[in-house]
Specification:
Blueprint: H1 4-14, E1 20-23, H2 30-39, E2 43-46, H3 53-62, E3 66-67, H4 83-90, E4 95-99, H5 107-117, E5 122-125, E6 137-141, E7 144-149, E8 152-155, H6 168-177, H7 183-190, H8 192-197, E9 215-218, E10 224-229, E11 232-236
Parallel strand pairs: 1-2, 2-3, 3-4, 4-5
Antiparallel strand pairs: 6-7, 7-8, 9-10, 10-11
Length: 237
């Protein structure tokens, strides 16, 4: 069950850095935890959960503003129990993370989410594990053996997805290639929306005077051309 006193220790160790935490809102004491955490500046996301629609609504009313990788690790939509997915669709002014690797969520479901939330409230993420950017083979996710093959990371025992090996630039390209977002919408979902969702858009999230100059350059095919950090080119394709 969530404990604000424990979270406060992380906040102290962070020395002012923003903190986002995911919780399962059906756990005892969740509503009070969310209220206190939000009062102290934490961003609360909901996920890895079997919460009902009512559980999710209560947490959002208490101050939660995000959904951990929508569709994955949450109770699905049913006509008698809308579940957490129903809450994702139905509660405005919340941000839904989305893994667009083609394995975690079908493109059609991604399209439905973007239509229901609007592209201003979808955040493209990767959920990548340590094998991202590496070749196929055997790796570990914590203590669990993982097989990386044909673009997916799966548990060696059982074959369930074990995070992803998605690169964020490829998530941007995927949603455009699937014809469910424009290039401008895709870039926004991978940058500005993410910054807004954690209240750091005054620091990063767009190319603007006074903000962090960390960005990539893509060509007309959305392939990587260059990477800039602190305004300096660090990589050239």
């Amino acid at each position: 069950d969530p404990s604000y006193s424990e979270l406060a220790e992380y906040g102290e160790a962070a020395k002012g850095l923003p903190i986002k935490i995911g919780i399962a809102p059906e756990r005892e004491g969740s509503t009070d935890f969310v209220k206190e955490a939000v009062e102290h500046g934490f961003t609360i996301a909901l996920g890895h959960s079997n919460a009902t629609y009512a559980d999710a609504v209560a947490a959002v009313q208490a101050g939660a503003t995000m959904w951990v990788h929508a569709f994955n690790g949450m109770r699905g939509l049913n006509h008698r129990e809308p579940g957490m997915v129903g809450a994702v669709f139905n509660l405005p002014n919340t941000y839904a993370e989305l893994i667009c690797d083609g394995f975690h969520v079908r493109p059609e479901a991604c399209q439905i989410l973007m239509r229901e939330k609007g592209t201003d409230h979808v955040v493209l993420i990767t959920d990548s594990m340590r094998a991202a950017g590496l070749s196929d083979g055997e790796y570990y996710l914590g203590e669990f053996p993982v097989i990386v093959k044909e673009g997916a990371a799966r548990l060696k025992e059982g074959g369930n997805l074990a995070g992803s090996i998605l690169l964020l630039k490829d998530a941007v390209k995927n949603v455009v290639d699937w014809q469910i977002a424009t290039p401008a919408e895709a870039v926004k979902m991978a940058s500005l929306n993410a910054a807004k969702s954690t209240k750091i858009d005054d620091v990063c999230g767009q190319i603007k005077e006074g903000l962090d100059a960390d960005f990539i350059v893509l060509d007309e095919h959305l392939e990587l051309v260059a990477t800039y950090l602190d305004g300096e080119k660090r990589y050239q394709a």
